[in-house]
């Protein structure tokens, strides 16, 4: 039961289409060869060699197209699809989004014709017809649909097809891939595993040395589930649509907290994943917990390609977190909004899931929804922006099923060790008397501080930021509605993303510093919550997207400001929380602070 690929054609795309002009370089010797030539494995770096070119030109480029029947006609207005999601880069204006593209001149031998071939010789053996070539490398992951590489002239803005490679297919488009974990409750005795496959028939996860198994439930979504507007189809609805296959989830039960197990997932009919080792988090009420937290990561290509919305810091952050995990001191990861930045270009979810698999397959990968997952016209978001590209939270909730209140209610709380985590949605209504507000009020008021003495509040859009973004990064209505809940319920620590840097506050309420940290014997800023004054806020949105700066004028509540790619490392005991912001490029601690109770 494989999904069929979809490369539909909207009325807008038909109007937008530009007839292809005859290409300037109609060499009869043109060729495009791909190695390996297929069937493609689940991951590969393929070499694409173009040859037979009479006159190398800086406007020549190669695109990776999927599915292979996607339109490669030029559509001048396709740039609107990029711009509406905030991506202003110069990208290919085809009628359907090409997964990747590279200018042929990125091979330094191309323009000077240093890779020449003789196509015809005279009677003396001298070359009469010489042509030029180049080789490009593309990173490919198994996104199930077939692939074709297309050689263009005319640059990204006025493309003209020179040569096509022919269709390449994946060896196993039904292969179960991209397994990632999430916690289901606070007991740490069960874990949910979610993965992607081209086959919707039941599969299973086998775990604990193969002695136990759990059947999967498969879901999917179609382009009809995406949001759009009548005049201009959203990227998710049309230009950027890619079939997601099937998303499988299964729950492993009968586990023990803070214990290591192994698992594999799949079936005999579609194949099995490799065996993966994972560790359950500590149960609520236990003495300590360690976690990593960041926002706004996305992904970046592992080759020289240009593609929609590249987040330059994402690779260094995932590699640094992977090193953190090798210490055995990471119980969970929290990714707090702006997850993949696919924003309607749906094949990019596969590349993102591939990027995080080494870390998300070993510990719970807990998420919060952000504007680039949710917001679009018709989504009923608080903020009417096109930031999700028409995904409207559908793809996010499919790929990352959290222990949430219900469908399209992506708020939840969970306890690990000494911490009660509340994860909210800044994109869904949060005003007083809204459903989410009532839930937050009830959840915060019911925390058992004898079991979890620390309360950490998590969302995407911040309450405090020194970044002077346009539009503003801080919504005063959000602050006015929700901040009193934090103070009333003595929330200790707040993490937000959205702004692409790191910033830490004093213990702050309504812009007023109610408590400043003092240096401990090791020189670490320490907030004493034995006599609670207000929450400490930290923005940790520096995990991938292009970094933001800060206002020249420093607000009184801003204690530490760093514009570097990185993440926060947190360790909490019953009496002490240590937070360290780590640079992903050097793994050096760039800022650290403690919150203590009991006069320590």
Give structural notes.
With 600 residues, the protein is mainly β. Helices cover 12% and strands 31% of the residues. An eight-stranded mixed β-sheet has the order 20-19-18-31-32-33-28-27. The chain is globular, with a radius of gyration of 26 Å. The termini are far apart.
> How are the strands of the largest sheet arranged?
20-19-18-31-32-33-28-27
Shape: globular
> How much is the average pLDDT?
94
The secondary-structure class comes to mainly beta
Q: Considering DSSP H and I runs of 4 or more, what fraction of the residues is helical?
A: 10-25%
* Secondary structure tally: strands: 33
Span between termini: 60 Å
What structural keywords apply?
12% helix, eight-stranded mixed β-sheet, mainly beta, single chain, 8 helices, 600 residues
Tell me briefly what this model is.
Helices cover 12% and strands 31% of the residues. It has 600 residues and is mainly beta.
Task: Map the helices and strands.
Blueprint (H helix, E strand, L loop, with lengths): L10 H6 L14 E5 L7 E11 L7 E5 L13 H5 L16 E4 L12 E6 L5 E15 L6 E6 L6 E5 L12 E7 L7 E7 L6 E4 L4 E4 L1 E3 L26 E7 L7 E8 L3 E2 L3 E4 L9 E6 L19 H13 L5 E5 L10 H14 L4 E4 L2 H4 L19 H6 L12 E5 L2 E5 L11 H11 L8 E5 L17 H13 L4 E4 L5 E8 L2 E4 L2 E2 L5 E4 L7 E5 L17 E5 L3 E7 L3 E8 L5 E8 L4
Parallel strand pairs: 18-19, 19-20, 22-23, 23-24, 24-29, 28-33
Antiparallel strand pairs: 1-2, 2-6, 3-4, 3-7, 5-6, 7-8, 9-10, 10-14, 11-12, 11-15, 13-14, 15-16, 15-17, 18-31, 21-22, 25-26, 25-29, 25-30, 27-28, 31-32, 32-33
